[in-house]
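Hi everyone, sorry if this is the wrong subforum. Our group has a chain we'd like a structural model of before ordering constructs, and none of us has done structure prediction before. Sequence below.
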Amino acid sequence: MRYIIVGLGNPGEGYESTRHNAGRIILDAIRKEFSKGEFEFDKKLNALVAEAKIGKEKVALIAPETFMNNSGKAVAPLVKSKKAAEGLVVIYDDFNLPLGRMKISFNRSSGGHNGLESVIKAVKTEAFARIRIGTAPANAKGEAKTPHGDDKIEKFILGRFKDEELKALKKVSKSAAEAAEMLIKEGREKAMSLYNAA
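Answer:
Right subforum, don't worry. Here is the predicted structure as tokens:
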């Protein structure tokens, strides 16, 4: 099976450290962990691409260079069947999870995330793995303080991470890289049972 890990976000320097780019930030951490090469632009896919090796498996790391709501365009040429989708892992930001947390899920709806919705439409199935990266501040109970209303949500997700938030994200990136490794080496059930319990 061919494995593909996609990190969702928006291209360009203006979006680099925004919450909506958590998927791309985590993908780069995975590249540093498992790949000897840099990202290179693939004109056909309109994406940054790097080859990695996780265990014995070759893994394509893909960062679409389209804006978020067109993310699926880079994925569609690589995932042309439900069988191929079994090797797909999509990493993206989730403001319903507190910063410092992540969750692995499978075969679920987009939950309103435009980038994920684009991928689902492009590959014509929801049956693939996702690593959701929390971006929201936490309340006293450790629950996400979720923004409400379209304007507030847009302002929040396109806002930049503060320095201390980037430190928290760096810790999560280590766990996310380990989770991606387990997804590929030992399967999603094992990865979900271990990392979703944390």
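For your construct planning: The beta strands are 3-7, 40-42, 47-54, 57-64, 88-98, 102-106, 129-136. Residues 163-186 form the longest helix (24 residues).
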